[in-house]
Amino acid sequence: MNGLGRSLVTIGVVLVVVGLIISLGPRIPWIGKLPGDIYIKKENFSFYFPIGTCILISLLLSFVLWLLRR
């Protein structure tokens, strides 16, 4: 049961962090405009792939999960 409780707390913390990022995301000016983010806009077509932002979020989540495992 101890492992289950720890897992539920970890999932809850991750959900809170993701919720904050989603709700505060538009107010953070550098999210989505990092070097490495691909944005192509043409007349009737636009393509956006945030590689740099994905890498940053992945690093942050990995660090948080590493801290929680210690």
UniProtKB/TrEMBL annotation:
One Pfam match, given by its short name, reads DUF2905
TM regions (residue ranges): 7-25, 45-68
| Protein name, entry field | DUF2905 family protein
Q: Which UniProt keywords apply?
A: Membrane, Transmembrane, Transmembrane helix
- InterPro entries, A to Z: DUF2905
